Amino acid sequence: MPHPARPTVTLREVAAAAGVSVATASRVLGGSARTVSAENARKVLEAASELRYTADVAARAMRRKSDSIALVADDLTTPSIAQVVAAMERQARTVDAFVTVSAAGGDTRRQLETVRTVCAFRPRALVITSSWTATTAYGARLAEELHAYERRGGRVVIYGDMDAPFDAIGVDDRGSARLMGAHLAATGHRRIAILAGTRERTFAAARTTGFLEGLLGGGVDVRDIRVIDCPVNRAGGYAVTSRLIEESPGEFDALMAVNDTIAVGALSACRAAGVDVPGRLSVTGFDDIPLAADVTPRLTTVALPFAEIGERSIRLALTVAGRPDRPGVRQTVTGRLVVRQSSKVI
């Protein structure tokens, strides 16, 4: 049975969602020469994207590129992406541009639809915080969409894995995580549980590999390392740590989490169970989100330069594109070890 057609979204509905007049929405989407404030333009473009104002309507309405730089992110709720977005906005303002933000929620189909919609409004550049494999059917469709946008004069920058032939900024998760593994091994930790997140998260897999390399290189026996999957959030860290404390009390002398959010959940579980950190158990994270320095005890972690990543993304997005068939520019940032009170020397 065919699916019913999606109702057409009107310009009036976009204006209402953005909290502006129909005339203002028309100027933004119609490419009018009359000036519209950056804030109102941002609201209109974001509302149009959220309502899926159809690409055909957008194509008829727009006559020139906007001054927007569109960000399509997997998840806007994480503290790390908040830092990236803030830095992008600051950098964009230096060239009289502004940043619009859309979230795909980790849904590949929604991400592809969002990219199509956003590109229809002809932003100056598009930044995607995502990982995909170009050889998959989804990856091939997304790459095709992005190539078409570049052929129309747009710029694409990927923040994340660098499988596709676009300019990209990535984090050396594996090498950065190796620093933490080596540190725990050097400080006498020999029985380790790695809270590894979920396997489909490529950053989590890379960090887990780096942890293992650092630990093994520092003399830890592989038989004394346990890798445990868990949801990549505070609740996941809390649940898996509570289970470990209940089922295997005293088995480990350190918990290594693939991000700070999981580590904060682990700290909460230790506190609830009366397990002293770091007296009985060291806990470490990764990212160095603002909360890492505020929890008790303050979290040992790997700090990533999220502000630098945001600024670099905008600078790269605003450079003049080269030949369409040129290899993409690759930039990599590395984390640094930050030792605080949640770990100890044994």
UniProtKB/TrEMBL annotation:
The positions making up the signal sequence are none
Gene3D superfamilies in UniProt? 3.40.50.2300, lambda repressor-like DNA-binding domains
Q: Which CDD domains match?
A: PBP1_LacI_sugar_binding-like (cd06267)
Q: Write down the SMART domains for this protein, in alphabetical order.
A: HTH_LACI (SM00354)
Q: Which SUPFAM superfamilies match?
A: lambda repressor-like DNA-binding domains, Periplasmic binding protein-like I
Q: Which UniProt keywords apply?
A: DNA-binding, Transcription, Transcription regulation
Describe the location of the HTH lacI-type domain by residue ranges.
9-64
Extract the coiled-coil ranges from the record: none
Q: What is the name attached to this protein's record?
A: LacI family transcriptional regulator
Tell me the lineage of the source organism: Bacteria, Bacillati, Actinomycetota, Actinomycetes, Micromonosporales
